[in-house]
Specification:
About 50% of the residues lie in helices and about 10% in strands. It has 13 helices and eight strands. It has helices spanning about 5-15, 15-25, 30-40, 50-60, 75-85, 105-115, 135-145, 160, 165-180, 195-210, 230-245, 260-275, 290-305; strands spanning about 60-65, 100, 120-125, 150-155, 185-190, 215, 250, 285-290. α1 (about 5-15) crosses α2, α4 (about 50-60) runs antiparallel to α13 (about 290-305) and α10 (about 195-210) runs parallel beside α11 (about 230-245). With about 325 residues, it is an alpha/beta fold. It has a single domain, classed as Alpha-Beta Barrel (TIM Barrel). An eight-stranded parallel sheet has the order 7-6-5-4-3-2-1-8.
Amino acid sequence: MTATATSRLSHLADSPADLRTFLHGLPGVDKVGIEARAAALGTRSVKTTSKAQAIDLAIRMVDLTTLEGADTPGKVRALSAKALRPDPADPTCPPVAAVCVYPAMVPTAAAVLAGSGVHLASVATAFPSGQAPLEVKLADTRDAVAGGADEIDMVISRGAFLAGDYAKVFDEIVAVKEAAGPAHLKVILETGELATYDNVRRASWLAMLAGADFIKTSTGKVGVNATPPVTLLMLEAVRDFRERYGRQVGVKPAGGIRTTKDAIKYLVMINETCGDDWLSPDWFRFGASSLLNDLLMQRTKLTTGHYAGPDYFTLD
């Protein structure tokens, strides 16, 4: 990031009024236009040879996730083993990008993933509501990192954002980023609760200005999660942010992405919107659980000519 860009960001951080002016000065989102563009990109076809490469890339982009109250150490160990070898019968199948769990399960996952190159993500900051004092959120983050997490998926305070208290949201992201230390920070916007596309754009820029390494659509715990138009809008935001400030930020749609067809649509969207630079697990992730099994089924079909069937792979 250039010195001029850093100076601009510092100015916004120091002045709530300037931050509000900046966010409300972003161009309004054309609802019809963004939905039409997302729909049009979803109709693009992929050739068979390209499909095989796309499936392997999508597998490498999966954050294999379990975030249930009934999670047990045994379930987390099994999920972590699957992350390393998604298809035990096929050693050419790549590992996923990361395993994502609650903070209490981080040490369990870390014991399986240590030294593998598969990242360990932990939700934090009073996930999924974000309704807790800042001190609790920071302690949540520090505990997860101390347990072995190298990625933190935090939630913003939607109540503060919707009330127009952008400075509070900004300051919380900055504080969590500091508490996370070397861990990468994914900031969950919970776009299904933000009500408008304009708010999604503002929240995306707010998170990036505050230091997010990734912006993430959803917790997967509300009625509306990742959608193509919202993801397209966030991809446009990271593209424009890099053009303006020289820093690249990743995108993670989460919740509701279940099929290979869905995943490939998102890969096309990335390529057409941001280009090759974002076609990497370093810059794009799928927050998912059931998606991986469908990717594996389709991969087996391309390799062998027949489906293995949903029962062939472990249920997550």
